[in-house]
Design a protein that fits this description.
- The structure is a single chain.
- By secondary structure, the chain is of the alpha/beta class.
- 38% of the residues lie in helices and 22% in strands.
- It is built from twelve helices and eleven strands.
- The strands form two sheets. Strands 1, 2, 5, 6, 7, 8, 9, 10 and 11 form a nine-stranded mixed beta sheet that branches. It has a two-stranded antiparallel ribbon with strand order 3-4.
- α1 crosses α5 and α5 runs parallel beside α6.
- The longest helix has 13 residues.
- It binds adenosine-5'-diphosphate.
- The site of adenosine-5'-diphosphate has 17 residues, from α2, β9, β11 and α10.
């Protein structure tokens, strides 16, 4: 169960939109680094990267928050084995789930039912995004990792507009996505919003054979790196398609925690070490 003694956001509890904006500002100013994790479409490993990045940073002793703002398929609760967790409504806002120096918030924690489809229209989504960012008692954090909605539509746009001073975005892609240019659209989206691209991760790049442990290229590899050179953004590295990643995610365990020393865990660690937070 969550334990949290951090001071609350002073404007929490009001519904007026200006006060909500103010609450968001006050909550976010207590957080040193805000990093958005984006992808051109769903299913490429954006949540997997968000969870493993958050935990890798928390393992360094930093105070880390992880927020999952995916209206259609929030997967962070499953990946952390937190299904059924309901955020406690404190006097001044919602309490994130807290374990050690990692705090976690996800839409189902607030809504209370992870199995029902959420039907919210555009303006309501913007409001929910702001509430999740402004009325959660994050307290002081070194990093907030934001698992953002996929694509380049209204939802990621609302997230970017709400977090005005983010360090930047990490873009997760796959070799196939590089080929169909979804990731290029995400890069252009960040450029138009003047959001720095901290780097691109090519996930599911090659396959780790469960028999021999060798990485076999199924799709053409190297496309992500090439694309980054062309678009003048940093390539952070590749993560292979590894059955242990699925097994950890489905079991509610964090891959980097459970598979220390494996080639895929080393790939994650190498990527995290290359991120230059602003
Ligand atoms: P997204 O957030 O982009 O929708 P997820 O992180 O939920 O994608 O990943 C989709 C599925 O792919 C999950 O079942 C996850 O365990 C699996 N997955 C992600 N990355 C890898 C990988 N490198 N190897 C194997 N499976 C992966």
């Amino acid at each position: 169960m969550a334990e949290n003694n951090d001071s609350a956001c002073s404007h929490a509890g009001h519904s007026d939109s200006e006060e909500l904006d103010q609450a968001v500002k006050e909550c976010l100013k207590k957080i040193k680094h805000k990093v958005l994790v984006f992808s051109g479409k769903g299913g490429v490993g954006k949540s997997t990267v968000s969870v493993n990045l958050a935990l890798s940073l928390a393992n360094t002793g930093a105070k880390v928050g992880l927020i999952d703002i995916d209206f259609h398929g929030p997967s962070v609760p499953v990946m952390l084995g937190l299904q059924g967790y309901k955020a406690i409504q404190g006097k001044d806002g919602m309490m994130p789930y807290e374990k050690g120096n990692l705090k976690v918030m996800s839409i189902p924690f607030a809504v209370g039912d992870e199995n029902s489809a959420i039907i919210w229209r555009g303006p309501m989504k913007m409001h929910v995004i702001k509430q999740l960012l402004g009325y959660v008692q994050w307290g002081e954090l070194d990093y907030l990792i934001i698992d953002s909605p996929p694509g380049t539509g209204d939802e990621p746009l609302s997230v970017c507009q709400t977090i005005e001073d983010a360090d930047g975005a990490i873009l997760v892609t796959t070799p196939q996505e590089v080929a169909v240019s979804d990731v290029r659209r995400s890069i252009s989206f960040c450029e138009q919003l003047k959001l720095p691209v901290l780097g691109v991760i090519e996930n599911m790049s090659g396959f780790v054979c469960p028999e021999c442990g060798k990485v076999v290229d199924i799709f053409k590899s190297g496309g992500g790196k090439e694309m980054c050179q062309q678009m003048e953004v940093k390539f952070l590295g590749s993560i292979p398609l590894d059955p242990s990643v699925v097994a950890s995610g489905d079991a509610g365990k964090v891959f980097v925690q459970e598979n220390s020393g494996s080639p895929t865990e080393k790939a994650f660690a190498d990527i995290v070490s290359k991120i230059n937070f602003e």
